[in-house]
Amino acid sequence: MADATYTIDNLCYLMERLRKPGTGCPWDLKQTFKSLAPCTLEEAYEVIDAIEHEDYGQLKEESGDLLFQVIFYSQLGKERNLFDFEEVVSLLVKKLISRHPHVFPEGTLTSERQSGRAALNEQAIKDNWESIKQGERKEKGQASILDDIPLGLPALTRATKLQKRAARHGFDWPDVQGVLEKINEETRELNEAIAGEEVDAIEEELGDVLFTVVNLCRHLKVDAETALRRSSLKFEQRINHIEESLHHQGKKMVDTPVEQLDDLWAEAKFSAVSKHP
Fold this sequence. Notes:
By secondary structure, the protein is mainly alpha-helical. Among the domains are: 8-81, Helix Hairpins (Orthogonal Bundle), CATH 1.10.287.1080; 173-221; 226-275, no CATH class. Helices cover 69% and strands 0% of the residues. It contains eleven helices and no strands. Helix 3 runs antiparallel to helix 4 (56-79) and helix 7 (155-168) crosses helix 9 (199-219). The mean pLDDT is 89.
């Protein structure tokens, strides 16, 4: 029925049906943990896109698509006797309870803080969170403070996580000025590599510049991924303005003099400022 309301149990059952040999869906049947990974990344970005556009109807739909990825992995785990959805949920709840002793003081789901106690200190909570996670890393045999930061993260996100983790353990600049000086240093080294036409060195020094800019974002409390996506969107909108303007003139960008493209770019910037004073 079109107006039926379904539950998480219904979703798990649906997943079993999709993976049932002989009667299931051919595409779903051939999927593996590795083949699903790109789909999961795509769905996560679609959730973020809906949030950034404040499209909450779309966010509801995309959240479901992302949830389905977890259900799919759980079904694959169940088929191989690795884990199932109930175990995924149980492990998650246990982990969150242990990481929030300020909310669940007795380590149980039903235990509560006494209402009359002093307000929680956010920094103390963060410090305790990191201490708990460090203990978890030791239990998993992860010796380095950076061991559990996934290689598969987007580069800007991973750089931020690496820097935050190192900073929590005392490896950091004391202020923004130190980061700005480091950017200048890395830029000089990049110019030297460019002057020497050293291809490998140019790539390495460019990476160092980017990595240090991410550190600047962190010190200024700006999310690097969000900042770059915002700039990319702005660039896209201005290019669209240029294309549209040229289309009305019967022209294409590739055939237009650079000077005219610069004028149209400035026009696009002015138009954007006028819309958002």
